[in-house]
Amino acid sequence: MTSPLPGRPTRMEPTDIAHRVIDDNHFMVLGTSQPDGTPRVSPVFYNHAGYRDFYWISSPHAQHSRNVAAQPRVEIVIYNSQVDPGPGTAAVYLGATAAQVPDAELPTAVGAAFSSVRSGVRPYGVEELSGDAELRLYRATVRSVEIHVRGSDPERGTGIDRRLAVEA
Asked: What are phi and psi for residue 18, nearest 5 degrees?
């Protein structure tokens, strides 16, 4: 983000940083808990509604989907893996509760999940995510948000990289 004054960067608030990272990326790393308690991470393409609900489509037979059904608490990381470490590095950590969207909620949830469709993605219809369809819509509702702060950040750095809580 640039300042109206050339050459002077605008200070971004933590919430703005989180929103920028969420808006600028397409995949999130979904962390679930396997039956034996070990973590499992899965990259999933996401859309969000109001930075509070994150949606993805998956098979209910996928291991991460089965993990969500058994243990709905999940952790999510969103970041751009294509940037070099340094000043442009940013990440958002989300604590959330996830579940398959119930069929009764699908019309509303599909509308929210695909209210703004990213380039290269087509919206799915309710009929493609219910009945005999092989895919389902999943939703993670955020309960906590943190951003990554570099230790060398000129405003918030402490010398050691850390997480900073953000208003959800």
From this structure: -60, -45
Helix (H, G, I), strand (E, B) or coil at 102: coil
**Which residues are CB-contacts of 132 (< 8 A; sequence separation ≥ 6)?**
none
Q: What are phi and psi of 110, to 5 degrees?
A: -60, -40
pLDDT tens-place string over residues 101-154: 999 999 999 998 887 766 667 889 999 999 999 999 999 999 999 988 776 666
Q: Quick one: pLDDT at residue 163?
A: 76
Strands 162-166 and 39-45: unpaired
Distance CA 53, CA 99 (A): 11
pTM: 0.87
Residue 156 to residue 168: CA distance in whole angstroms: 19
DSSP tag of 127? G
Residue 137 tokens, joined: 């819509």
Q: Which pLDDT value is given to residue 106?
A: 96
d(C-alpha 18, C-alpha 28), whole Å = 13
